[in-house]
Design a protein that fits this description.
single chain, 8-stranded antiparallel β-barrel, Hypothetical Protein Pfu-838710-001, alpha+beta, 2 helices
Length: about 170
């Protein structure tokens, strides 16, 4: 059974930028989300995948990923992912024995940057670079679905705040 064994981190600083070997824009759309399981469509470098992820147990979860036609992925993003599309640039870095991914989000999650690394086993030793900050693996607040919900809630308050500012500006 295919497994994803992944650890996620905040970034401590920008010194990782000097180590980037390749960068690519990604678009992820959440097709379904239920009880810590998700189905995602992704477009990266003109290739498309459909991914099914099970609930995380520690740093491990089931992950089934299938290549799909690019036209299908575009249709899924356009017709079935409204409000739940994640745009980011993924930067690839090799450090020690591992390939690290730094995701810089755009669009709805603009301003957020996170690092992740996939491991062979749960007990694989990890040499952590100096540009890595606090580990956030498994912390609900940092799940992409949670961050999207929080950002959408914050944006829904923007019109009300603007109306209050407009009303205050009209006072004598």
């Amino acid at each position: 059974m295919p497994l994803e064994i992944e650890r996620r981190f905040l970034l401590a600083n920008d010194s990782w930028r000097a180590m980037v070997l390749h960068s690519a824009p990604l678009k992820d759309g959440i097709l379904a989300l239920d009880n810590r399981r998700k189905v995602r469509v992704r477009i990266q470098d003109e290739q498309a995948t459909l991914t099914i992820k099970g609930p995380r147990i520690g740093i491990v979860r089931d992950e089934f990923e299938y290549e799909i036609p690019l036209s299908d992925a575009r249709a899924l993003l356009a017709r079935h992912c409204s409000g739940r599309i994640i745009e980011k640039t993924r930067h690839y870095i090799f450090y020690g024995e591992h390939e690290w991914h730094i995701d810089e989000f755009r669009g709805l999650l603009d301003g957020i940057s996170l690092a992740e690394v996939e491991l062979q086993t749960e007990s694989t030793p990890l040499d952590v670079p100096t540009w890595i900050g606090r580990e956030i693996t498994g912390i609900a607040k940092y799940r992409q679905s949670t961050m999207i919900k929080a950002r959408l809630r914050a944006l829904s308050k923007v019109p009300a705040i603007c109306a209050k500012i407009d009303a205050l500006e009209k006072l004598p």
